[in-house]
Amino acid sequence: MKKVNHTSAGISRAVLLSLLLLLAYSFNGVQAQDTSTEDVVTDFLNVYQTTTGKMVQLAGAIPMDTYDWRPAEGIRSVREAILHVASGNYYFGSMLGFESPEGVDPRTLEQSGMNKDEAIATLEESVAYVKSGIQNMSAADFETKIDFFGNEVTKRQAVFVLGDHAAEHLGQLIAYARSNAVAPPWSQ
What we know:
By secondary structure, the protein is mainly α. Helix content is about 70%, strand content about 5%. It has one domain (about 35-185): Four Helix Bundle (Hemerythrin (Met), subunit A) (Up-down Bundle). Helix 1 packs antiparallel against helix 4 (about 115-135), helix 1 packs parallel to helix 6 (about 155-180) and helix 2 (about 80-95) runs antiparallel to helix 6.
């Protein structure tokens, strides 16, 4: 009887199986990364929508005659704080590579003197602009490095700063509202 060398056949099968498993694992890793980016974007946009939605609600609850109120000389008024967030949205968006809407100059929004309805509409438009831009970013876009106030950061990091900026000024508006006996609508 002829003796068959099972050892070399076994090794070849093991090597082939290992390569197939490695290839499958690599493919799954790429898929998981894309899903993870999508999940992070979805989660960010949900939190951002909650924050900016509360800001819009609060801006609507604050009476027009309080829009020029400021806690001290040299500090932003209610109107300026609302428009500062809109301005920041447009400014951060342009840094992220989003095309700026025609006629919008983030440098002049804060001091534009808009009335209450105009300020709220401008805030809402700036939020829609940011959300649309972020939704259209690819996973690779989030990893692109940009100059961000003299620091090299990824666009992903800049997006998180944009969200933090909105949350910071929501807190400011809550303090402004409560200082003027206005309760945030979601807390009543």
